[in-house]
Amino acid sequence: MFHVEHMSHFVVNLSFTRFDFFSSLFRQMDTGAKTTTINTPRFHKKSTRPNPQLVSMLQVLSSCVNRSIAQPQKAPRKTPNTIWWGSRPNPETGVTETKTKSRIRSKPKDAGQFAGGSSAETNPIDTDGIPQDMDFSDSQAALSELQFEIECLREYVKPKSASRSWESRIQADGGNWEAVRGTIFQEMVKLERVPQSRIVCSTSDCTKAASICCTSCTNSYLCSDCDVSLHYMLPLHQRHGWPNGYWERLSCNNTVTCTEDGILSLEERACVFPLDCPQTCQHCGSSGCVTGNDDGNYILITTTGRYNVQKLKPLCDVCGEDNGSELSNVLRHGFWPANPRRFVHLFQVELLQLVDRLMLNLPGSSMSGIASTLREISSLNGMPMPVSPKLLATALSEFRFCQRELSMMRGSDVMNCPPCSIEQHSCHMDGNFKVYRYAKVPRGDRTPYYKNVFITDNNEVSKHDKDIAAIVRQKPQEQNNLCGSSYWKAARDTGYRGRDSLDETGLVVAGCRHAMASKAVNMFTGERFAYHHYLHIHHILQRKVQFMWQDVICKYWPWASRLAGQSELFQAAVSDVRPALSVMHAKAHAWDCQVLWSGVNQPGAGTTTGEDMEQFFSHLSRVGSTTKNMSASRREDTLTEHVLFWNERKIQNMPQLLVKKYNRVRLLHQQYHKELSNLTSSIPDAEKNRLMWKEEIQSLANGTPIIGQSGVNQQDQPSSCQLYKLHLKLKEAAALGAYTSQASNQTELILGQKTLLHSAKKQQQDLESMTKEYRSLTTQLTVTGESISVLLEEGREQACKQRLAGLDSRLDLLVVAVRQRKQAISNLADTSKQRTKLRRRNEKDVRALGEIVTERNEVNTMLTDRGDDISVQMLLSNSPQALPRSTVAFDMKKSIVDLYEKVDRLQEEELLLVREMKNFLAFFKNILYKLSNEKYQVHNCGNEEGCHHYCLNQVSISEECVQGLLGLKMKGISAAQQQLQNGLNTFSNVFGSDKFFYCTSSEDDSSDDSDIGEHS
């Protein structure tokens, strides 16, 4: 047995093993107090309850260890505090990072007391029983082991709540369910037990036997009389009875009676729809004479099933006049009519809200399926009656229309993006062929309720299409939809075959860079440029958007530029808007197309991807399974409803989205800046040469030879070169003179050499003019005294260098295209068909490389100071000596320029996101200001009147409507304040509450535009 007073003597003898030490230490202490049995901490513990004696013993041990460690000794072996966990995306920024976590046996928070220092401060206990002159120099290793075991022991004396992994939590949850399944099942079986003895009615002053249990009345047991009186106007209460010896759901028109012998029987009862009768007649002024009279039946459809109830009509017993509005009574009690002229089917508002949210969150849900679900629920509740899908669809549509107008009265217009409200930066346009409509379905004659809210009127688009067709008359052989190794259907600008069975073939949608859809047009053919051009002119240009993003902008923009001369509006569409190619689609375009059009290389574009509508299409495309069999107006209304839902959800999450993107951009900016520093550290003057290298890459993409680096000035071509070229042409024309004199039309027809004879005759015709030009150049060049032979030799040298520079430019372009395509084969191509197409394209380009290399080497032999010949293998191996124009390889130049462009785009994105955060706050500040003014002018706040819209008549608006408008304005103010507070709280987490100001006006925000892109 080891006691506290023996501990000092125990510490001195530390030469025995750690197992012997702890096997003795954890024996039961016979001090009279309640003991605690603990096993070796390395394995498990039987109890985590701290023992006061054990705690005191540990404090004494800590004092001994502290005095020992304070003596000079060797540094203990360092153990890493973290272990590798793996790479996971950061949920705040979206960037993949390498995560680490602490070891399981990590250093405790209070481990500093073992690192040295005065033990009196850390352990304020009496240590007089420990000799002060002990020598621990021979026991340093044992002390280190003792220190480790004390740390482990502390975890058991004072247990810490360790976080559990996802796997352990899932196992624990599953284990919890497994442990209680039997208990839950037992309780569920008990609930099926009906009362075996007489139960007295729970109503006060009633002693009759209960025969009904109402769960809506807090499990009240009622007799038949109390049930009829209590539930006369409460048809939706869930009532159960046991007339057949088991629990069953009772209809609202049934009750259960109980005889004196305890026999239960099912009987019918009267149940009516709630009616609020006025105290005084509105016509004759008589008081207390208005009562309800039978006026037919209602069919109520709720979340629990279908109910048939009797309806009452408030009639005056004196004058017989009607004193109520049936519509007002229905709406006031939470129901919506299926037919406004014949009130028979009434849908519960809670049901319509449930179906609305369900269909919007699950696009493509069938109304017939939902109606069948309601019928099955009604059958399970003992009321097996059908629910009409048509009536449900009509009631839901009208309910949505009304809710849309109410939200507009509250100042909520989800078709406007808050960050893009002041000035929109980008707009992405793309086509969607999933939301088509069959031509066999009648179009219908109903006007869409959401006309021009999202989808533009077809007549306006058709007129614009006809105007474009009269200007641009493109022949089929002029179509060019090939870019890179892909044939783009969107660039064919023609109708597609195989769509004869469709009426509307899809949509062309325009949206902002926050994936909010704003405008669309119906497609009746393929994805033609005319549809995009309509949105370009009437939407993008009107909103003063800076960048237009498209998947085939490299084909669309030259097409739109040809229309620029037709009108000032078309000219402004090209000059005031900048084109940009979508970033992901750009990877499938040609290399030169990526350099010239990709958004990564456009100054001021930020890190906009131009793929924003793809996110929206992931939701909208699923609606196509139902819209294909709808009428034209219903399809448009359904699509618009989903757009409103999508935009509303985006606006709610907009502050978190902006902050997450801002954090990610800052992190990427640091990473790319570090990567750029590492890449340019071994290349001198990379910062100075970046612009020159960028021009070189762009000139290659444009097909312009880089001549200046080969010793030839393209803008100031030597006259001797012109003289030499004319000399060759004259020499060739003279040689062809004999052929043209002997050849005839008969020779041309028999030998089939039409092209050769035509070219030879043309050169003979130009012989006289070329001779005059040659003599003029000779006269100008011989003024200095140089001979003709010397001038011709200089001209030959310059012409060879010029030809060599052009061939080198073509080689650079082909080499980059081949290498990029090789990367696409392994990284981007998902199918063997795509990989085969890319490999064939590469084989074709490699053959072209061989032909150009052969021609280049031949031209190189004609130079006086000729360089080394090259080969295809040298070009594809990225050898710096392949094209000896520069000391830096072309691929290295492109990598450096690309990194500089990425860093510039990230800097622009930071400024752009800050501006969008300010716009978000300013947007809701303007809503607050507008609603606050309208709150004091509610008499004039009726919405716009329309022939088929929900609206208020400002002439005959009642005082009750005025009070209702005031409530709507107050609700809108509260919602705007919540959005504003959400934005302030979210943005303050990044910038601080003092640094990020409340909001700014549009004039203040415009000052940030000059900062974006000025460094590019």
What can you tell me about this protein's structure?
With about 1000 residues, the protein is of the alpha+beta class. Helices cover about 50% and strands about 10% of the residues. Strands 17-16-13-18-19 form a 5-stranded mixed β-sheet, with helices on both faces. Strands 4-3-5-6 form a 4-stranded antiparallel β-sheet. A 4-stranded mixed β-sheet has the order 10-9-12-11. A hairpin with a 6-residue loop joins strand 5 (about 240) and strand 6 (about 250). Helix 3 (about 50-70) runs antiparallel to helix 5, helix 21 packs antiparallel against helix 31 and helix 21 (about 655-680) runs parallel beside helix 32. The longest helix has about 45 residues, at about 890-935. It is elongated. The chain starts with 6 loop residues before the first helix and ends in a 10-residue tail after the last helix.
Q: TL;DR of this structure?
A:
It is built from 33 helices and 19 strands. The protein is an alpha+beta fold and 1016 residues long. The strands form 6 sheets. A 5-stranded mixed β-sheet has the order 17-16-13-18-19, with helices on both faces. A 4-stranded antiparallel β-sheet has the order 4-3-5-6.
| Overall shape | elongated
What's the gyration radius in Å? 43 Å
The fraction of residues in strands falls at 5-15%
Give a count of the beta strands, DSSP E runs of length 2 or more.
Answer: 19
- Low-confidence regions: 1-48, 71-75, 78-85, 102-138, 707-718, 997-1016
Average of the residue pLDDT scores: 77
Q: CA-to-CA gap between the ends? A: 80 Å
Give the count of helical stretches: 33
- Major sheet details: 5 strands, mixed
For the biggest β-sheet, the strand order reads: 17-16-13-18-19
Helical/strand content category = alpha+beta
Helix content: 40-55%
